[in-house]
């Protein structure tokens, strides 16, 4: 994995497209704290996401205490250097809870990036332990825990190869020949 020096100036925000481009899954944090007002701003971005029928079937738990972070780090050992972990809690009685939770999660990742913090969408290792984490966090049985999102000051900004635009963008119609066969 390629890395770039963590150069974003915290305390400022960046343009939307810059944040989209800069956002990468950050898995190395310095251990520095993130001010509460920044965490609130990040959660506010999650709250403002699009949702099916505007049901907004989400709640967010912000975990900052080291003891609690330690209990959750079985989802990813490197989380113990994060300043906070956000648990995205969903109400599955809404038909689009999964899409809505994903939209909120993406807003949270982008807002974190815009404020200069690293974050990571942690679902792969969260869902298999959902019941265990719900117990630790006191989440009611009828709710779903969709993602855990560690947030922190990044040691570095990782770079990830992305498919080029011309491989995924089609105008008007799906191409008749496979895209990667295009000369
Ligand atoms: C649905 C979903 C689940 C993910 N689960 C995990 C996870 O459990 N652990 C992890 O380290 N990263 C997880 N990620 C982050 C992906 O590995 C990452 O987004 C992908 O490798 C692309 O890298 P980038 O985010 O830096 O662009 C997840 C991402 C998504 C969207």
Give a description of the structure:
Helix content is 31%, strand content 17%. With 183 residues, the protein is an alpha+beta fold. The protein has a single domain (8-181), classed as NADH Oxidase (3-Layer(aba) Sandwich), CATH 3.40.109.10. The chain is globular and about 55 Å long. The chain starts with a strand and ends in a 15-residue tail after the last helix. Bound molecules: flavin mononucleotide. Flavin mononucleotide (FMN) binds at residues 24-25, 27, 76, 120-125, 158, 160.
Gist of the model:
The protein is α+β, with helices and mostly antiparallel strands.
Fill in the keyword field for this structure.
183 residues, alpha+beta, NADH Oxidase, four-stranded antiparallel sheet, two-stranded antiparallel ribbon, 6 helices, 6 strands, globular, binds flavin mononucleotide
